[in-house]
Design goal:
two-stranded antiparallel sheet; 7 helices; single chain; NAD(P)-bd_dom_sf; 224 residues; precorrin-2 dehydrogenase
Length: 224
């Protein structure tokens, strides 16, 4: 019999961190990876560390991040929304997490689920399509394997497919006033049109003509 040890069940969520104050304590490889992902989210990032990697220094020189070349002080956590403790000192990381949680901050230590109150899932992206995979922090290596397995299933055609579906949904709302009819038509399209049907280099005009033709057929009760 396998015994299971769970912390509180983690709630899956996508956060809008644009212009949010985020703190990275540490200046090594782990800190660099965290900063890279936060830059993609357009967060306001501060790094506190006496020394940083060349990549972090490069981002600092380009004014993409704030770098405070100093030792960390516990009061540093107070003005930040989200905090990563990435130093090579486990005791310091735990102290940072303890103090951050005292002020109801979101804090993560990559090596300690028990001391974190959020984790970052393994992620697969195809344009605006994002798939997040998590084992609730129990085995990140397994989450990465699942992501790799999904990469073949969700290829780059899904980026085009999402663009098509988004365009279709928008034009459908403009042309059909009945909500139930819109739902029926959209469900039919998602069921019948697949990513493999996406045409390479389809320009916007041709896409709109194709979408309007599908809407016309389905609104008249015809089959695709």
């Amino acid at each position: 019999m396998v015994r299971r040890f769970f912390l509180s069940k983690l709630y899956p969520i996508f956060l809008n961190l644009k212009a949010k104050a985020c703190l990275i304590v540490g200046g090594g490889k782990v800190a660099t990876r965290k900063v890279k992902s936060l830059l993609e989210s357009e967060a306001n990032i501060t790094v506190i560390s006496p020394e940083v990697t060349d990549q972090l220094l490069n981002w600092y020189n380009k004014n993409l991040i704030i770098w405070k070349s100093k030792q960390f002080d516990l009061d540093d956590v107070k003005k930040y929304n989200l905090i990563y403790a990435c130093t090579n000192d486990d005791d310091l990381n735990k102290e940072i997490a303890k103090f951050a949680k005292r002020y109801d901050k979101f804090v993560n230590i990559a090596t300690s689920l028990e001391d974190s109150n959020f984790i970052v899932p393994s992620k697969l992206e195809r344009g605006d399509l994002s798939l997040a995979i998590s084992t609730q922090g129990k085995c990140p290596v397994l989450a990465k394997k699942v992501r790799k397995d999904l990469e073949a299933q969700f290829d780059n055609q899904w980026d085009k497919y999402l663009y098509f579906i988004t365009n279709f949904r928008s034009r459908l709302k403009n042309q059909i006033s009945c909500v139930n009819k819109r739902k029926r038509i959209l469900n039919e399209v998602v069921r019948k049109v697949s990513p493999d049907d996406m045409i390479e280099d389809l320009d916007r005009h041709d896409l709109e003509v194709w979408v309007d033709d599908i809407i016309k057929k389905l609104s008249e009760g015809k089959k695709l």
